[in-house]
Amino acid sequence: QPRPEAAHGGANGATAEAGIVRRAMVRHAQLVLDMTDSARQPDYRPRRFEFAVEAAGRFAERFLAENPLAELGLCVLRGGTSEVAAPLVSSSKDFEEHLLRAAAGGPRGRASLVSGLLRATAGLEDTPGYGTREVLVLFASLSNWDPVETPIEGVLAPLQEKRIRVSVVSMSPEMHVLRRVCTQTGGSYAVALDGSHFEELLSGHVPAPTCGPRALAPKLIRMGFPRQVFEVAGLAACSCHLRLQSQLFVCPQCHARVCKVPSRCHACQLPLASAPLIARSYRHLLPLPPFVPAGEVDAGAEGREARCCGCQLLGPWSRACPACGGRFCEACDEFTHDALQQCPGCLEAGKGPAGA
Fold first, then answer.
1. What is the sign of the dihedral through the CA atoms of 116, 118, 120 and 123?
2. What phi and psi, each to the nearest 5 degrees, are found at residue 84?
3. Which of 273, 271, 266 is nearest to 241 (CA)?
4. Virtual torsion, Cα 124, 60, 78, 47, nearest 10 deg
5. Peptide bond into 46 cis (omega under 30)
6. What angle do CA 258, 220, 285 make, to 5 degrees?
7. What domains can you pick out in the chain, each with its CATH number?
8. Cα–Cα distance between 191 and 207 in angstroms, integer?
9. pLDDT value of position 203
10. Residues of the chain predicted below pLDDT 70
11. What gap in Å lies between CA 324 and CA 310, rounded to an integer?
């Protein structure tokens, strides 16, 4: 069976998006994880439960690394209801701790989609309107068990009013109710064929989604850039975890100390960031265009040996940057698009990032 491509491809599989699109730099997302009896199935090794927990941890690490201004929370479907396992956090380490603590309870009971969506909505309703609100459901069940007094229609209206986008990546066959929720909230729905395809589908939710017509107009966002201090006289406690630290960041508004950036000041709720984080968040707005066959840049380059602009190895490399003409091997082509997001040849030539 042919495998569908992930929502956002890599270097060679990617295609340049047509026209100019607006993407969100500030994202607020809730991950809803199915920890019901259906997660005991062994078709994903060792079981769906362990596989989904590990995949969720890897997704959170990459999501928060590539979206430094984003926040990610966790809700768990278990026992016919839903529980908040983690509030919105901007640290993958904090998220991992909450995830492992929730996984210690094991899978049990049946899944209630309505309960999960209500919990996720409650966790997102106080987030500022200038950021996106997203819910990503990792579903493993074959059925949905919702309370009679709370039909799905009663949840769809609040989701649409609060501009919450719901997407689902499922390990089970397609369900109409899931497809309906995703369609009416502007999200996506996909069923994984196997473990590797599941990881591909999850990776498609790492880049920021395009802003729809109902998104709020851009405006200035209040944000603080804290000063880093080293406590030489003695350890000091951070305001976020009340743990003794030797290296802290001082909020420029209330002078409270936090242990990491990005974060939100626990005293005055000011979002805290740094210039490098802003630069990292900005790069998905101007993605590096796909490299083209070398013959399209230089008619005589096809088949001729040249040094790779990335690793400097000599070879008949067939891919070239359309802006600077630099040649790249397959490994550097993939690394440049998936991780670096900038062309080394353009930077060396002083042309700035390709596509800018």
1. negative
2. -80, 115
3. 266
4. 160
5. yes
6. 90
7. 27-205 (3.40.50.410), 227-283 (no CATH), 287-349 (3.30.40.10)
8. 19
9. 94
10. 1-22, 212-218, 284-285, 299-303, 351-356
11. 13
Which strands form 71-78's sheet, in the order they lie side by side?
Answer: 81-89, 71-78, 27-34, 132-139, 164-170, 189-191
Complete DSSP assignment for 181-242? HHHHHT--EEE-SSHHHHHHHHHTTSSPPBP-TTSPPP-----B-PEEEE-SSS-EE-TTT-
Tens of pLDDT, residue by residue over 68-77, are: 889 999 999 9
Q: What is the pLDDT of residue 2?
A: 39
**Residue 342 structure tokens:** 């900038």
- Read off the pLDDT of residues 42-66 as tens digits, 9 standing for 90 and up: 999 899 999 999 999 999 999 998 8
Q: How far apart are CA 288 and CA 270, in angstroms?
A: 32
Residues paired with 74 in a beta bridge: 31, 86
Instruction: Provide the pLDDT for residue 5.
Output: 37
pLDDT at 8: 38
Shortest CA distance to 350 belongs to which of 325, 332, 331, 324? 324
Question: Tokens standing for 350?
Answer: 């002083």
pLDDT reported for residue 301: 64
CA–CA separation, 121 and 115 (whole Å): 10
- Sequence letter at residue 277: L
Q: Measure the CA–CA gap between 246 and 269, rounded to whole angstroms.
A: 23
| pLDDT value, residue 347 | 87
